[in-house]
Design brief:
The complex is a heterotrimer. Chain A has 16 helices and 14 strands. Chain A is of the alpha+beta class. Chain A folds into two domains: 214 residues, no CATH class; 165 residues, no CATH class. Chain C has one domain: P-loop containing nucleotide triphosphate hydrolases (Rossmann fold, 3-Layer(aba) Sandwich), CATH 3.40.50. A six-stranded mixed beta sheet of chain C has the order 6-7-8-3-9-10, sandwiched between helices. In chain C, strand 1 and strand 2 form a beta hairpin. Chain C is globular. The chains are: A alpha+beta, B alpha+beta, C alpha/beta.
Chain lengths: 420, 408, 235
């Protein structure tokens, strides 16, 4: 066999020269082309799978977080420390406008809006429903929330006695633009809070759950009606890029106030992302295990077939350890070929699909409920590429090691006589 | 002249033991793949059926009857009356239970706070087998009967209202004449639905008590629970015939989110199976090809002494099917073992809110379904046969002459 | 006379394609074998002796010309029918790798009968009889790996003749054997030829094998160079 000649010819150098050993290993790899492709194909599939899955997830997660935070919640909020557990009217941010101005000065912050929140009975004519009344700064809301853009009929808040309500609430109340609307609740001091205004616009978010209890009035009117001074319940913050959310300077907020990034405001979003990542890990783990078995088997077969050759190499003076090293190098090459192939194909696919996006079939409100867009654009996950590549470059040589170690126990004479 | 199958099986079995290490690894791989797929399937099924049950139990039932305008305007004005002694015309064998309810939006006020929710008038005895009320944890007392004029609130709502069991709350809701009613209710119990949105969304009182408050004999919904979801379509059609002026909807229409996730799960099971099996296929084909290639001389000799090409193909297929069957058997047992090991459920409470958003319960209990095992087994066998098609073709395309020469 | 001719080859040619260069392995050979004969095909490597043997066995197809075995023209048969012809009428012995490694000696002998559909009891009896008549009756339960080269060849012969083939083809049967074992094998072949009337054709370049044959055919460059009866040498 000509390849034997290659191995033997450079034997003396091979003993001390790893680059040459690597060259021999590379040539040995291509003695059985089909097997090499099949084995590295498995490796490539695993890498492909993790890169594709994570790229699509990352792509949809980014949009999901954007959509979820963009509608109402914002990237972060400053609240009274007690408000998260007890969202009642009395747990306010005092000196709200001063704090809002201070935070707005932070270079990481793109926009800031103050909000007051109270639950109240809302009536139009004879009909009454409970709703979450929100006192807002209209101009700030236009920047920070998508709701003002979702006004379907009429306009967003312009005048002092303007009210906007959710479409489902409007339907339940039998209310239309221009109708008078009365808000009745309890003020901070326990007295009756009352506000009367005209419906200026109706907001249609497509999520019945959100808009069934949605009602916004201007913040000064809210503060007056509910007996608040310069107080708000939340100062909503929008930052330049999600990563900047932790960089905002929150020194001097004091013990009374808490800065809550979106992960704490909407733990369900963060946890959904985590949960899906765990799911992907489980599948990737299983696939990696299967690929490892496949590599293990390849090396069992490879060692079995080449016992004679190894016997000859031992006979001419190559150390068993050098042969094991050569086999390990073959495993490394195998991993490199597989990983390279997997990265190449997955990157090409992700980049190609990222141009057009993949349309998601919408069923009712499902996508909006999950804050998903109707089309997802994968974003190439470099961390998945690194993780997949590193894991495979460890797993493959490891799987090859056990069969390769048999060489150490091989007696040259029996090996040469073997009828393999 | 047919090759006796028993001879093929005998040859296949013995050939399996020729390369123990290799075949053991192949078996292990199939075992892990099939076992993993069975567990993953069961977990997805568990999720899927939990979700359907939750959807059905959230006062939905498999089928619900509403007035046509109720979905847009959920008030007592959109109620309907039922004749005395009315019964749904669903065969008793398929009927788990049914009830009528009055469900109206209401505002609940304590001394300190105000909240909006759905006030539901129920027949407590009916709900036992019908909705989550039958099984939910309670502090305080449950409603006694349809005439009970106390109120039961969710634990979370109780906290938000800053009140407790035994205290009174004021309820404002719209009566049948369109005018608001205001009434005091004593809270006799609080239900604990594991922090889900249910606790904030619903309050319960007796049905006839609520009807008295609203000045009506009407109800707003009939909810029917069946023994099996498979009967839903038939029961819907039957109820629609019986109550032509009303709107009949099954849980898929009422809970499109859950229904979509239900469908999605069916697809997910197939996709995971395919991914795992493709990963397995690389190793499988690799090993099978080698098993054929190193026996080229043997196949040549078999051809020379008179074995037909078809019989050679059959022999290779029998051998790979044997490995596949062994692996499948072991894999299914392993999968069942894993399902049994996780029978108490996998605790997902670390992601509690995400879990709720995804429609999961905080403890995911795997659900092993016989039809899935059959499907996995059949598809794996088909895949195994496909995987051995190429090796078999290689075995038969060996020219006996070349094969035998190779030895010289 | 036709009844007495088992193999008829007419104008047999076989041209191989060796990397684009056509090689005439056989070049218009006419060759007949009468029933009960013991023929050795001899000649240097590449003379065409193995090619001729393989063409007679239906393992290879001629470029032109005809092979008729026991009245059947091989050109009329498809692959499966040729398999059946080999199964029922031709026994094969190769230089090595004769036996199915996972079957015992007895099972190897039974294998062809199993393919033919012979009943288990009958099969069993015939296999045991055959092995003992070849002097290896006590080795029936061993697998090929546990047998010496000579023993393996005996089992191969037993398998080849247990179904009473019309023709026994042996390709370099002595190639992997020492001279003493070869002698034993050849004695066996001669006995089979004489007592059972099995026609034997061997391809060989072992003079010892040739010395046992009744008819010696020498090939060179794909043609028959000489064809002689060796009556004087046979006892």
């Amino acid at each position: 066999m000509p390849t034997d000649a290659v191995s033997v010819g450079h034997l003396s150098e091979a003993r001390k020269s790893p680059p040459l050993l690597a060259a021999i290993a590379w040539r040995n790899l291509w003695r059985n082309t089909r097997r090499t492709w099949l084995t590295s194909g498995g490796v490539a599939f695993a890498v492909f799978l993790v890169v594709i899955a994570r790229s699509f997830q990352d792509g949809s997660f980014d949009v999901m977080i954007d959509n979820a935070t963009g509608m109402l919640t914002g990237h972060a909020q400053i609240q009274n420390v007690a408000f998260a557990d007890d969202p009642s009217l009395r747990n306010t941010v005092a000196d709200a406008s001063r704090i809002a101005r201070r935070i707005a000065g932070d270079p990481n912050v793109a926009a800031v809006a103050q909000r007051g929140l109270a639950f109240a009975l809302v009536s139009v004519g004879e009909r009454s429903f409970g709703a979450q009344v929100m006192g807002v700064e209209p101009d700030a809301e236009r920047v920070i929330s998508t709701l003002p853009a979702l006004v379907r009929e009429g306009t967003y808040l312009e005048k002092a006695d303007d009210v906007v309500i959710g479409a489902a609430l409007a339907r339940n109340l039998g209310a239309h633009v221009g109708d008078e609307i009365v808000v009745l609740g309890t003020a901070k001091d326990g007295s009756i809070a009352a506000f009367a205004g005209d419906i200026a616009g109706i907001i249609d978010t497509g999520i019945a759950e959100v808009e069934r209890g949605l009602l916004q009035i201007p913040l000064p009117q809210f503060q007056a009606a509910f007996g608040l001074g310069d107080e708000a319940h939340a100062i909503v913050v929008r930052v330049h890029g999600l990563d900047a959310v932790d960089a905002v300077n929150t020194d001097g907020l004091g013990d009374e106030l808490d800065y809550l990034p979106w992960q704490r405001l909407m733990p369900e979003i963060d946890q959904t992302v985590e949960l899906k990542r765990v799911g992907t890990r489980v599948i990737f783990g299983l696939v990696t295990l299967l690929v490892t078995f496949s590599v293990f088997n390849t090396f069992i077969m490879l060692v079995y077939e080449r016992v004679r050759e190894f016997g000859m190499l031992l006979a001419v003076g190559m150390r068993p350890r050098a042969i094991v090293a050569m086999l390990e190098l073959e495993a490394v090459w195998l991993a490199v070929v597989g990983v390279g192939l997997g990265l190449l194909v997955s990157t090409a696919l992700v980049l190609a699909v990222a141009q057009v996006g993949i349309p998601l079939p919408d069923v009712g409100e499902v996508l909006r409920q999950y804050h998903l867009p109707d089309r997802i654009f994968p974003s190439l996950s470099t961390s998945a590429m690194v993780e997949g590549a590193v894991l495979m470059c460890i797993a493959v040589p490891l799987a090859g090691l056990l069969p390769a170690l048999r060489i150490v126990r091989l007696a040259p004479v029996t090996a040469l006589r073997s009828d393999a | 002249m047919k090759m006796p199958l028993i001879l093929l099986l005998q040859l296949g079995w013995r050939n399996l033991w020729r390369q123990r290490r290799r075949n053991f690894m192949l078996l292990a791989a199939i075992l892990v793949a099939v076992g993993g797929v069975v567990l993953i399937n069961s977990l997805i099924r568990g999720f899927q059926y939990d979700m359907m049950e939750d959807a059905v139990e959230n006062l939905t039932g498999h089928v619900k009857v509403l007035a046509p305008g109720y979905r847009d305007d959920p008030s007592i004005v959109q109620g309907f009356e039922l004749a005395d002694g009315w019964q749904p015309s669903v065969p008793t064998a398929e009927l788990e239970g049914w009830t009528r309810r009055v469900r109206v939006p209401a505002v609940v006020m304590s001394e300190r706070e105000t909240r909006g929710l759905n006030l539901v008038g129920i027949d407590p005895a009916d709900e036992r087998d019908l909705s989550f009320l039958g099984t939910v944890a309670m502090s305080g007392e449950r409603l006694r009967d349809a005439d009970d004029s106390h109120i039961v609130l969710g634990r979370e709502l109780l906290t938000q209202l800053d009140t407790k069991v035994g205290r009174r709350v004021v309820v404002i809701t719209q009566g049948a004449d369109g005018l608001n009613r205001e009434a005091g209710f004593r809270v006799i119990g609080a239900f604990d639905a594991e922090g889900t949105a249910l606790e904030k969304a619903f309050a319960f009182t007796g049905r006839t008590a609520l009807q008295r408050l609203l000045d009506t004999d009407a109800v707003t919904e009939i909810s029917v629970r069946l023994t099996d979801d498979a009967h839903s379509a038939e029961a819907s059609a039957e109820l629609a015939r019986e109550l032509p002026s009303l709107q009949v909807m099954d849980w898929r229409q009422l809970e499109p989110l859950a229904a979509a996730m239900f469908e999605y799960s069916d697809a997910a099971i197939f996709v995971w199976f395919l991914i795992v099996m493709i990963a397995l296929a690389f190793g499988l084909v690799n090993t099978l090809i080698t098993a054929v290639m190193e026996r080229v001389r043997e196949f040549g000799m078999l051809r020379a002494i008179g074995m037909r090409p078809g019989q050679i193909v059959l022999q290779v297929l029998v051998e790979s099917t044997l490995v596949m069957l062994l692996g499948l058997g072991g894999g299914v047992v392993l999968g069942m073992g894993l399902v049994a090991y996780f029978a108490d459920g996998i605790d997902l409470s670390a992601w509690a809110q995400g879990v709720e958003m995804a429609g999961l319960r905080s403890v995911l209990v795997p659900r092993l379904m016989a039809e899935d095992v059959v499907l996995v087994t059949t598809l794996s066998l088909v895949l195994g046969l496909l995987g051995s098609a190429y090796p078999a073709w290689r075995a038969v395309s060996v020219k006996p002459l070349d094969a035998l020469r190779r030895g010289t | 006379m036709a009844d007495d001719v088992v193999v008829v080859c007419r104008q047999l040619s076989r041209i191989y394609d060796d990397d684009g260069v056509p090689v005439n392995a056989l070049d218009g050979v006419d060759f007949d074998v009468t029933r009960g004969d013991f023929v050795s095909l001899a000649g240097p490597s590449g003379s065409g002796k193995s090619t001729l043997l393989n063409l007679i066995g239906g393992l290879d197809e001629p470029t032109s010309g005809n092979v008729v075995v026991d009245g059947t023209n091989l050109a009329d048969l498809d692959q499966s029918q040729r398999s059946d012809l080999r199964l029922n009428k031709i026994g094969f012995v190769f230089q090595s790798y004769n036996l199915i490694p996972v079957l015992t000696a007895r099972e190897n002998v039974e294998f062809i009968m199993q393919l033919q559909g012979v009943h288990a009891a009958e099969r069993h009896r015939r296999a045991i009889d055959m092995l003992s008549s070849l002097g290896i009756g006590d080795l029936g339960d061993r697998r090929p790996g546990e047998l010496s080269g000579g023993q393996q060849q005996r089992v191969a012969v037993a398998r080849a003749i247990v179904t009473h083939p019309v023709l026994l083809l042996a390709d370099e049967p002595s190639a992997n054997l020492d001279s003493k074992t070869t002698e034993g094998l050849l004695d066996l072949l001669r006995t089979i030829n004489r007592e059972h009337g099995v026609t034997i054709i061997t391809a060989t370049h072992d003079p010892m094998v040739m010395s046992y044959a009744r008819r010696r055919v020498h090939l060179k460059d794909g043609r028959i160079e000489s064809d002689e009866r060796a009556g004087a040498l046979t006892v």
